Amino acid sequence: MRAKGVITIQVDGFPEQAPAGTTLAQLIERLSVQHQDLIVEHNGRFVYPRDYAKLRLNEGDRVEFILPAFGG
User: What domains can be seen in the chain, in order of their start residue?
Assistant: First the structure.
């Protein structure tokens, strides 16, 4: 049973619970995935870093964190 005011989202393919109204920026901070080269997809679409604080997550949303490997 889920607590009231809690949503379930998919983060990198795994279920994750978050308080209702959580922004993408808050999720990134809570999960400690901050990185200067972080790429984020929300429901299959690229999200610009400037939009992290504005994007509120909803029940069933899918979030993917991508950390590109650079070098050669």
Answer: 6-66 (3.10.20.30)
Q: What pairing do the DSSP bridges indicate for beta strands 6-11 and 45-47?
A: unpaired
Please give, one letter per residue, the 3-state secondary structure of the chain: CCCCCEEEEEECCEEEEEECCCEHHHHHHHHCCCCCCCEEEECCEEECHHHCCCCECCCCCEEEEECCCCCC
The pTM of the full predicted model, rounded to 2 decimals, is: 0.87
How far apart, in whole angstroms, are the C-alpha atoms of residue 56 and residue 23? Answer: 4
Token look-up 């990134």 returns: 28
Convert the pLDDT of each residue in 29-51 to its tens digit: 999 987 888 999 999 999 999 99
